[in-house]
Amino acid sequence: MTPPTPATSATPAEPAGPAPLAGPAGAAPSRPSFVETITVYLRPRVLIVMFLGFSAGLPLALSGSTLLVWMRETGVDLGTIGLFALVGTPYTLKFAWAPVVDALDVPVLSRLLGRRRGWLVLTQLLLIAAIVGLALCDPAKAPGLVALGALLVAAASATQDIVIDAFRVESLPENEQAAGMASYVAAYRIGMLASTAGALFLVSGFEAAGLGKAAAWTWGYVTMAGLVAIGIVTTLVATEPAASARAMHDPAAHAAGSPLRRVTVAAVGAFSEFLTRENAALILAFVVFFKFCDAFAGAMTAPFVIDLGFSRNDYAAIVKGVGLAATLVGGFVGGTLARAYPLVTAMWIGALLQSGSNLVFAWQAVVGVKLWALTVSIIVENFTAAIGTVVFVAYLSALCHSPLHTATQYALLTALAAIGRTYLSAGAGYVAEASGWVTFFLLSAVAAIPSLVLLAWLQRTGHFRALAASAAAKRSVQDT
């Protein structure tokens, strides 16, 4: 049900990177005035990050839930639809090429725009090409080509996530990091809404204008490809982060020798540093399972609504209206929780809310085709999903406290988090077919138990106290 954790990490080469987001781990940050709380969201750097959040959120549904609606409308069976969760594999494996993005420059583009912006423009151009390619496929006649197109969209999107992670953390100073995180997550959700509700409205509009179903879907996807231009314009308007600009011209950055050797050194150092930490295995398991219950239910939410008897326009209207409002409110509530309370407290709140929200869809299956009930379900789901996403982003960012390896480590963590919506959720369609919708959503809530057990275990071992101590030590170094 929740979108994958938005790219919100770090790749800085200096200590100023991940420290700001480590604050929620337990330290008590200074409280800004009400005016400062509002105006920080209007600062140019935060606005740039916000638009990049939209660019990051836009492609996900085009190879996910929107594609599933297209497939279901063309008669593809639920089992095959469930297997299409596997096209999210690039989000799971993106840590494998994250060191490439960190260690190497893009020919011509990096020289003209800088290291981060050069990679951003490249991935955005690749996204446009991949989405247009997917638009030209027919799910009923060529599901293999559709799978390939969706896989290419996911690969380009995952690479864009890696670069945006680094750009955000390197661009924002400490007093703008919290605002950047909240606005990024909110814009990410808006980008997803544009490619779900927005795309569905477009398809319906094209059909109303006289296009056939196949042509309407094609032009709907082509229009979505055009929206990627928002990310390109944002990248061109933005300024290359100072840390990235210095690193690009630092002889030490090329001291490792050949490009392959530089990538290898970056990868080995990042992984070994993390895996030698205390409770590393528990932490990685928790990252895998925290979003599993949400992702398992989310894999079937769109087909469930269609099967229940709601029209495409009804679903899109509710998601775009009250669903958007609930997402925005939930995102900023999540940001407030992550700043006002110790991180472990915020994590418990997010975990319990996102598992409980699955129950509203079991209730929806009993109530049936009633718009008011679907409205309640979408409000609850979007509100709790946004809270869970923000606090999870804060946790992942706090884990990346080594400035030498932040981007690669964050890519590894978000890739592990994606396992829940790819491999572990691939059989959701078969479970739904075998159990029925009510039982399916009840089971999806029960699927939260592993993450709750791991959260309690990590809390008991002092993991969150260690994160707080690390954050405090890093702020002390920055203040001196």
Q: Output the CATH topology.
A: Growth Hormone, Chain: A
How many E strands? 0
CATH level 4 superfamily: MFS general substrate transporter like domains
CATH architecture: Up-down Bundle
Order of helices and strands: HHHHHHHHHHHHHHHHHHHHHHHHHH
The value of Rg in angstroms is: 21 Å
Quaternary state reads single chain
Q: Describe the biggest sheet? A: none
Membrane topology: Multi-pass membrane protein
Subcellular location: Membrane
Pfam families: MFS_1
Keywords: Membrane, Transmembrane, Transmembrane helix, Transport
Question: How does this model look, in words?
Answer:
The longest helix is centred in the middle third of the chain and has 35 residues. The N terminus is likely disordered. It is built from 26 helices and no strands. The protein has about 475 residues and is an all-alpha fold. Helices cover about 75% and strands about 0% of the residues. It is globular, with a radius of gyration of 21 Å. The chain has a single domain, classed as Up-down Bundle (Growth Hormone, Chain: A). It is a multi-pass membrane protein.
Task: For this entry, give a set of tags.
26 helices, 75% helix, Growth Hormone, Chain: A, single chain, 480 residues
